[in-house]
Amino acid sequence: MVAPVALPEVIVIEPKVFKDGRGWFYESYSARTMELLGIRDVFVQDNHSYSARRGIVRGLHYQAPPMAQTKLVRCTAGSVLDVAVDIRFGSPTYAKWFGAVLSAENRKQLYIPKGFAHGFLTLEDDCEVQYKVDTFYSKVHDRSIRYDDPDIGVEWGVKEPLLSEKDATAPYLKDAGKDFVWGRMQ
Question: Is residue 30 part of a domain?
Answer without folding.
Answer: no
